[in-house]
Design a protein that fits this description.
Elements: E1 7-12, H1 18-30, E2 35-40, H2 48-55, E3 79-82, H3 85-94, E4 101-104, H4 117-138
Parallel strand pairs: 1-2, 1-3, 3-4
Helix pairs in contact: 1-4, 2-4
Length: 147
């Protein structure tokens, strides 16, 4: 297994869809081996569609409390992964004076999809599945993990 970072922050615009999903996925894959947190440029309540599609794979994010960069209890991370352009700018600004890697994973915001409930859920599933692939590639678990 490759060396894993000790701490990872996922960030996006509202900390309501993409970053809580990514946080839940990495915690599921690596448990307590990596400290994982998430934040947004602004905050909002966790999106019910995000909760639903994560529940489909057995990960509960319903108790996630959205927080902004300013509300982070710890601002020292080994790696920050931003999932929106707005969050990327904030992450770069935050890390100007610290030794921290910052990566940008362009991730579609599924809340912009309109249509039936099923159409909207499918957009959220696509984001979830894309995050699963990227997280598994970046942070291999070295063992069988169902996702």
């Amino acid at each position: 297994m490759q060396d894993l970072p000790g701490s990872v922050l996922f960030c996006c615009s509202l900390n309501a869809i993409r970053s809580p999903m990514a946080e839940g996925l990495l915690k599921h894959l690596h448990g307590h081996r990596i400290f994982v947190d998430s934040a947004g440029v602004r905050t909002d309540t966790v999106d019910p569609f995000a909760i639903a599609v994560m529940d489909e794979i057995g990960i509960d994010i319903s108790r996630h409390k959205s927080k902004s960069f300013d509300e982070l209890e710890d601002s020292s991370f080994d790696l920050i992964i931003s999932l929106s352009p707005e969050a990327q700018h904030r992450a770069v600004e935050m890390t100007r004076t610290m030794a921290c890697e910052v990566e940008y994973w362009q991730t579609f915001d599924p809340s912009h999809v309109e249509g039936s409930r099923e159409t909207r859920l499918e957009a959220y599933r696509q984001v979830r599945d894309s995050l699963i692939r990227r997280i598994k590639a970046k942070f291999p678990s070295g063992g069988p993990v169902n996702l």
